[in-house]
Design goal:
Length: about 550
Amino acid sequence: MDILAAGAAAVMEAVHTSLTGLDALFLEDARLDAGGPAADATGGKVSGPATSGAAGYAAVDVIQRKLDNRLERLALTSRLEAQLAAVKARDVAEIMELQQAMTPPGASLADRSFDEVSVVEEIAGVLTVSSASAGALVMQSRKICSLPPAMNALACGAISWMHARIIADETEGLDRSGAEALVAHFFNPDSPKPARAAAPGELIPARFRRKVRVWRERHHPETLEKRHAKGRADRRMEYAPDRDGMAWVSLYLPGDTACAIWNKATDFARGLQGPTEPRTLAQLRSDIASGLLLGGGTGQAANGDSRGHIDGEVPTPRTEVLVTVPVFALLGLTDEPALLDGYGPIPASMARKLTSDGAGSFYRVLVDPRDGAPLEIGRTSYRLTKAMRKVLQLRDGKCTFPGCSNHSLDTETDHLTAWHHGGTTGISNLGQLCRKHHHLKHASGWTPGRAQQNEPPGWTSPTGRYYPAERHDWESPQWPPIPEATREYDAPAHTQKAGLHPSVRLSPETSPSRLLDPDVFAPDDPVWEDFYAMPIRLPQDPLAKWEPDPVPI
């Protein structure tokens, strides 16, 4: 309990510091209203331009300072909320520990279970939440408290409670060592392989969840192939009535199927949009899905009015979905997950099927087996020198505006420094923006920074606050196992030029059936370009003979 008490004392000290900063900002606002000098969050006076007027500041200066003041208060309030969430989580976890300590050692399993349910109900009553919500809070609080790096980040306000909940959710089902490894990757810069991208607290929760889930899927002790096979058995449709005569219908499906349904509905919806179409894209998707399921056509009107059907052929734009797959997974040498744009990690067998079995709208993106960076799309180009748009899609991954999650294929290419202001058409002066943020950039003071070949631009807001770029956290692909005997094999130069490339099995005449060590080839060795030019021979899909369970009549 001494350690817990010390931790609680540190959290409360951080809370008092945040409260002191908030108090100083509120006092400053009162001085501005009274015409006195401004002050910073520590209570020090802020010097300003000498202007006329009783207040000593021009009206515009006071208004600007008030705006900045409220932004600073928002930041401090957010930090305080996280710190108080840490206090709350610690108390919830300790309540459960204290209840267990009060349970007699000889109590039966049923008695222990009732005692735990009772204290969860007590927490629900104190917080005025449902039993299910209280139970979820207990689970999340105990999980976060068991992972000190995540708890410390929450306690100092570096992450929000929403970020902490993501850690609790995504470590569910992992053993202790697996959970600790996940947390260390994102919160411990001294870990063997720390995250190289933005800090967790700098990412909006949805983006943070995606990064955590990708890491979890790649390092889960059970392969994604096996977990996906189990998950397919749980596919289902759910129905939930809602208010105002509305309801929700949802499908739990394999990721590629769900993604294809969404993309097809979106394509039809965009084909129906026009000057005479009053419905929004979201309304059109809903109407199209309803029409297709009920046999009413893709133009089914809202409110079930079949007269809303639009005669004539509906133009169907070609969908482009990127499937990033490590080359060795594509070859069937590893079970490393691939990434489906707009969804996340998928089994390698699913990626192989999407990119080779007639799914023409899915574009295969291979990654460098040395560092995980994207290399090329399909077989048309190796270095992408003739496909700048594709290069940007791979580099940025989404709209580059802070916090935006619009995917690459829904964005527009923008000159960071305008062409008429001397901007060039090069990777370092190009970025992706969704339509909303593209318009915002040209109509406001939001300014992008300079991009890099492998890094999107950061942004500066009209108030001068800088938001760094969300860098990619590429992770080196998994190499198939190479026997030690092979590492000592020195392939002659003429054998390399004859087509014996890294990870390609040697012929019996040349060597035993072994894999060449890729470290013997320099990064700029032509053997790599030859390697990626080879035709892909896909292994057999392990789920090809899978049959669904018979549905009872």
